[in-house]
Design brief:
The chain is mainly alpha-helical. The protein has a single domain, classed as Zincin-like. It has six helices and three strands, in the order H-E-E-E-H-H-H-H-H. It has helices at 2-7, 37-40, 47-58, 69-86, 91-108, 118-128, and strands at 14-18, 26-29, 32-36. A three-stranded mixed β-sheet has the order 1-3-2. A hairpin with a 2-residue loop joins strand 2 (26-29) and strand 3 (32-36). Helix 3 packs across helix 4 (69-86), helix 4 (69-86) packs across helix 6 and helix 5 packs antiparallel against helix 6. The chain is globular. The protein starts with a helix and ends in a 13-residue tail after the last helix. Zinc ion binds next to helix 3 and helix 4.
């Protein structure tokens, strides 16, 4: 995350590990990411989740409580750019990681607080990266 912040010429983020968060597993507010311990010990690829929160940071979304689903879509797209930047510029690999993360949310049937349904977010991600549309399927409800 320090590398991601530096890549954008931003000061480093602070990360706080907490035991419980209100209806979320991770949140970003005012230069600080709070992440639940349960997320850090999970086996899945958590980089897309962390990159999404860094996305809020670099996009200047400083009021976490605004709950604007369009901001979530913007943070997803920024997560792809961040992961690409940190991994040799390969947009497709970065896209796949964020796409798979959203697909797991879709499969779980849960919609996070302040977000559109995962299917809507997946399709918005495809709209943001037209070059990936030939490779990745749109989500249908
Ligand atoms: Zn978010």
């Amino acid at each position: 995350m320090t590398r991601a912040s530096a890549a954008y010429g931003k000061p480093p983020l602070h990360i706080t590990v907490v035991d419980v968060l209100d209806r979320a597993s991770i949140s970003y507010n005012l230069g600080e990411i709070q992440v639940a311990r349960s997320v850090l010990v999970s086996r899945g690829d958590i980089d897309p989740l962390l990159a999404h929160e860094v996305g809020h940071y670099v996009l200047g979304h400083n009021n976490n409580f605004a709950l604007d689903p369009n901001r979530e879509i913007a943070a997803n797209a920024e997560a792809v750019r961040i992961l690409a930047k940190l991994n040799g510029g390969d947009e497709q690999i970065a896209f796949r990681r964020v796409y798979n993360w959203l697909s797991r949310q879709h499969a779980s049937g849960a919609t996070a607080r302040g977000h559109f349904a995962p299917c809507v977010e997946i399709n918005a991600l495809l709209d943001a990266f037209p070059g990936q549309r030939a490779v990745f399927k749109r989500c249908s409800f």
